[in-house]
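Field: COMPLEX_INPUT
Field: COMPONENT_COUNT = two
Field: RESIDUE_TOTAL = 294
Field: MODE = joint
Values follow.
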Amino acid sequence: MKIKNHIILFLVLLAVWLLLNSSFEIHILIVGVVVSLIITLIFCRNCNVFSEIKLTPKAFFYAIIYVFVFSAALIKSNFDVARRVVTPSLPINPGIVTVKTKLKSKIGRLILANSITLTPGTLTIDIKDDILYIHWIDVLSTNIDEDTQQIVSRFEKYLEVIYG
Amino acid sequence: MDGTLQIIGAILTLIGSIFLFLGSLGLVRMPDSYNRIQAGTKASTLGTILTLLGIAFINPDWTGKLILLILFVLLTNPISSNVLARAAHYINIPLYKKTVIDKLKKEETIKVNVSEDKINTNSDKKEDKQ
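Field: COMPLEX_OUTPUT
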């Protein structure tokens, strides 16, 4: 199971190197492979960040869908903020609410918290176990289940498949 | 062909800078720190991404580096705003007076007392100096 961490870290490093160089010439490729391999072997003795990622075709498919869902939410949230800022009466109704997440893995929760911050009107403030504290610019309800339905569930169904 | 790419890039950069402008307008107009962080984070993220995409259209050689920059902004921007908001809440920066509910407050009563003491001692010192 540990070899998966090494492989993913190696591929990420190699991708960063190739993007930085913006070329696929053979000598650049060789330098990138060698350096990535050395860094992976030295610094990844007991890293377990990626061990919760599932590498099934379904997870890959859901990851691509997730990128689109997330981009749509990001654009929507920008128009939402722009509308609130431009309206003279400043239509905000803020508050801090709690939501519950079903995700178990650390990196899954990190991605979820980041996504919540970048979606319309919500900002993750704190996380304790499976409870997320969220500053909501326009509070619709204070019930934890309804809030979870409103804020978390649209991302969770994808992240659950990807990270478990 | 080059001309159209440049025009697309210019339009994307312009839209990005409009979002950045709206974000900074939000910083001025919003009533408390948390709402300001909200406006700042979202607008600056999409504004930066669109600006960088526009540059990628104008100068296609830089596309790889710009993609890296976009990923970096996407990963770090929400984290920094989260840390700012959390720190603001822990040192008792007040919420807007129309705030509906604050569920985090109830679980922090002990820490709140500690930080209030600290704030009081700090203000005492300032008064002494004056």
